[in-house]
Amino acid sequence: MPETPRYFRALEWGALLALLGCGLWVFLGTPVESSQGFVQKIMYLHVPSVITTYLAFFVVFVTSIAYLWKRDLKFDRIAKSSAEIGLVFCTMVLTTGMFWGKPTWGTYWVWDARLTTTLLLFLIFVGYFVLRMSVPDRDKEARLASVLGVIGVLDIPIIHKSVEWWRTLHQPSTLFKTEAGAAKPSMPPELLYPLFACMLAMALFYGYLLLMRYRVECGDDTIQEHIANHPPEGSRA
After folding, report:
1. Which candidate, 237, 225, 210, 189, places its Cα nearest to that of 25?
2. Arithmetic mean of pLDDT over the chain
């Protein structure tokens, strides 16, 4: 087992401390929102999870295109690692959204345009991993997964614009509003600053997870390549 790089440990502890600090800030240092009450604090997990999901799948999009262009498996390893993390964060988006929706809308789930398109994104990337597991050839797996990854990420602009294109229960973006041709924060600083901090902490955590999963994928490919080149004695013709 290769020695863990020093920067990897620094990123690990940085992400852990950032998440811990944000948690303390949210629960001890932010006011209770007047209209929604304590449940509004779900925002500090829900919104950063949305942003991190978008980030993870954007990385899938870029590295999938890079693999189709260069046919270098390192790009596919990054895409696969990022897709796995993105799927986890997408699950968090749907779960926290349901828990936020119950006291806000009176129900855990409605077939709202944004919720439905987000669920579609989740199902696309579940299919992405089913596809990977069903194709035995490594290069063919990478090629087909890259195509599906590029197509699947095209759902993200639809998710983002769904509140503008259709009538939905989901509120539009509340981070900024446009006044006199300029974008201005739509929430007070005591709510906005910890939200930005949570976004940064979650992005840092994503970076740590991506590096960790990439190292695992490199190890798996090395093992599979060794097995292919040195089959057990009993399996030889």
Report:
1. 189
2. 87
Residue 87 lies in a domain: yes
- Tell me which DSSP letter residue 122 carries: H
Do residues 86 and 202 touch, judged by C-beta distance below 8 A? no
**How far out from the chain centre does Cα 128 lie?**
14
The dihedral formed by the CA atoms of 126, 127, 129 and 134, expressed in degrees to the nearest 10 = 150
Q: Report pLDDT for 111.
A: 85
CB 98 within 8 A of CB 107: no
Sequence letter at residue 209: L
CATH number at residue 153: 1.20.120
End-to-end CA distance of the chain: 32
Name the residue range of residue 58's domain. 6-222
Residue of 120, 128, 118 whose CA lies nearest to 148: 128
Q: Are strands 182-185 and 176-179 parallel, antiparallel or unpaired?
A: antiparallel
Distance, in Å, from the CA atom of 140 to the CA atom of 198, rounded to the nearest integer, reads 39
Q: Is residue 231 part of a domain?
A: no
- Residue 229 inside a domain? The answer is no
With a threshold of 0.70, does the pTM exceed it?
Answer: yes
**Model confidence at 1: pLDDT above 50:** no
Task: Indicate whether 213 belongs to any domain.
Answer: yes
Count the residues in the chain: 237
CA distance 52 to 123: 17
Domain count, the chain: 1
User: Using one digit for the tens of pLDDT, what is the confidence trace for 176-225?
Assistant: 555 555 556 667 888 889 999 999 999 999 999 999 999 999 888 787 77
Q: What is the pLDDT of residue 235?
A: 52
Which one-letter amino acid corresponds to residue 58?
F
